[in-house]
């Protein structure tokens, strides 16, 4: 009998897993409680993958030999509980992709903030150096789809904690851990330790010839490292001390050290601005050195890199008011980084689906830099509670258009309207991209 693979969730990762499973000869069934994108339905049909939408047929799911779970489905979901009760193994899509990647190498990037920027920069450096590689994971194509449709000798993968939760054998040749701040605690029983453990799964299977690049200035990471034994090559990066191997920034110079090589560049050469992006750039350069990419190529790539859509993206200046789209800021720490880099008075657009946010983290920056807060969410009570009396005005809006119009009303020439919501987008929008695009559309219509 053929091996039955059930995929739960029909987004990019689920459909990618289904296509790869089918290609590898599995008996594949995909099930989604919601409704699938038409494009995905066409792809599944063309590949003769059986699927259902708008609900789950329990007996079909429980007949699985193995289940690939969408990263968005929590453990407390009743269907997952039933699968676990039946002792059916559950893996993530990146685990399935890893199984069939062949001899390809993997650079894997995780962290609470800066993942997408760092992943994109590493990919850009690799492409600049002429390497045949793919950008996969939480960004772009799913890893499984890439393996199925266009396998490469190198994958640069952005990986979330949700994807790491269900790995077994997944192993990256080079792993990067950028930072760990309180995020997604609703998925981790509101225990920060559980979330930390999840992030550290990126080196669960690290071998003696692999590399672990990590932020040595992040106390959460360094404290965790004291508690565990690792049999891999550690490459820390820091702005507080000078590691023997890895990287550091002192004054305005970044120095990288790997084996007998040493190189120093000015941070003024970096395309990405702001202290947090200096960390991201340093981590990316160390990864590139591990991949034996020539220094000249690395330098060219970090100088001409274009930052991402929805990440501190300058949209337009309207009558002297600058509009910045940072819709990708889905947690309070991301918003902290955005505010920290602001040099003009700010009208801040906040709000969305709360993930257990502690707004106390940005209180001092809000006091110092924010003139007005425009809330954009279904329930803004937590934002009011945090900032009423600290900032005036604070108003509620229920669409991107209303938020942009209200912000423009409060702004004076020389101010910045910053969309940096600190929340997930699922209450009013499909995702953070949809939120960012609606914001940009509203700015264009002013």
Description:
35% of the residues lie in helices and 22% in strands. It has 446 residues and is of the alpha/beta class. It folds into three domains: 4-91, NAD(P)-binding Rossmann-like Domain (Rossmann fold), CATH 3.40.50.720; 100-304, Mur-like, catalytic domain (UDP-N-acetylmuramoyl-L-alanine:D-glutamate ligase), CATH 3.40.1190.10; 313-444, Protein-Tyrosine Phosphatase, Chain A. The strands form three sheets. The protein has a nine-stranded mixed sheet, covered by helices on one side. A six-stranded mixed sheet has the order 15-16-20-17-18-19, with helices on both faces. It has a five-stranded parallel sheet with strand order 3-2-1-4-5. The radius of gyration is 22 Å and the shape is globular.
Brief summary of the model shown:
The protein has 446 residues and is α/β, with parallel strands linked by helices. The protein is built from 17 helices and 20 strands.
State the total count of DSSP E strands: 20
Largest sheet: 9 strands, mixed
Fill in the CATH topology of the largest domain. Answer: UDP-N-acetylmuramoyl-L-alanine:D-glutamate ligase
Alpha-beta content class: alpha/beta
Helix content: 25-40%
For the termini, the CA-CA separation is: 62 Å
How many domains in all?
A: 3
Query: Radius of gyration from the CA trace?
Result: 22 Å
Number of helices: 17
Q: List low-confidence stretches.
A: none
Give the overall shape, derived from the CA principal axes.
globular
- CATH uppermost class of the largest domain: Alpha Beta
């Amino acid at each position: 009998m053929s091996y039955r693979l059930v995929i739960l969730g029909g987004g990019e990762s689920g459909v990618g897993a289904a296509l790869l499973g089918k290609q590898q000869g599995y008996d594949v069934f995909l099930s989604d409680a919601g409704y699938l994108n038409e494009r995905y339905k066409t792809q599944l049909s063309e590949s003769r993958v059986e699927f259902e939408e708008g609900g789950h047929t329990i007996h079909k799911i429980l007949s699985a030999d193995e289940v690939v779970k969408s990263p968005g489905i929590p453990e407390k979901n009743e269907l997952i509980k039933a699968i676990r009760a039946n002792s059916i193994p559950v893996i993530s899509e990146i685990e399935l992709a890893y199984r069939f990647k062949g001899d390809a190498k993997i650079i894997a990037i995780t962290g609470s903030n800066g993942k997408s920027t760092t992943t994109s920069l590493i990919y850009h450096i690799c492409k600049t150096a002429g390497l045949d590689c793919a950008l996969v994971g939480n960004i772009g194509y799913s890893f499984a789809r890439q393996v199925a449709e266009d396998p490469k000798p190198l994958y640069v993968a952005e990986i979330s904690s949700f994807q790491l939760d269900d790995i077994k054998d997944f192993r990256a040749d080079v792993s990067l851990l950028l930072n760990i701040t309180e995020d997604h605690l609703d998925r981790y029983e509101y225990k920060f330790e559980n979330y930390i453990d999840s992030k550290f799964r990126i080196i669960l299977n690290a071998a003696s010839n692999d590399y672990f690049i990590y932020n040595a200035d992040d106390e959460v990471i360094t404290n965790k490292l004291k508690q565990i034994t690792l049999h891999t090559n550690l490459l820390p990066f820091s702005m507080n001390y000078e590691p023997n191997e890895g990287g550091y920034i002192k004054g305005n110079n970044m120095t990288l050290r790997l084996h007998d090589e040493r190189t120093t560049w000015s941070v003024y050469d970096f395309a990405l601005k702001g202290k947090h992006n200096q960390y991201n750039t340093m981590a990316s350069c160390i990864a590139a050195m591990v991949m034996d990419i020539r220094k000249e190529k690395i330098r060219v790539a970090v100088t001409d890199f274009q930052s991402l859509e929805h990440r501190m993206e300058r949209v337009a200046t309207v009558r002297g008011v600058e509009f910045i789209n940072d819709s990708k800021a889905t947690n309070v720490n991301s918003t902290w980084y955005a505010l920290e880099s602001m040099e003009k008075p700010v009208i801040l657009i906040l709000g969305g689906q709360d993930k257990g946010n502690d707004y106390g983290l940005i209180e001092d920056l809000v006091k110092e830099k924010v003139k007005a807060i425009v809330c954009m969410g279904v329930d803004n009570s937590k934002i009011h509670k945090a900032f009423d009396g600290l900032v005036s005005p604070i108003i509620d809006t229920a669409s991107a258009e209303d938020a942009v119009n209200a912000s423009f009303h409060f702004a004076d020439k020389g101010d910045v309207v910053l969309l940096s919501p600190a929340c997930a987008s699922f209450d009013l929008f499909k995702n953070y991209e949809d939120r960012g695009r609606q914001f940009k559309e509203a700015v264009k219509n002013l």
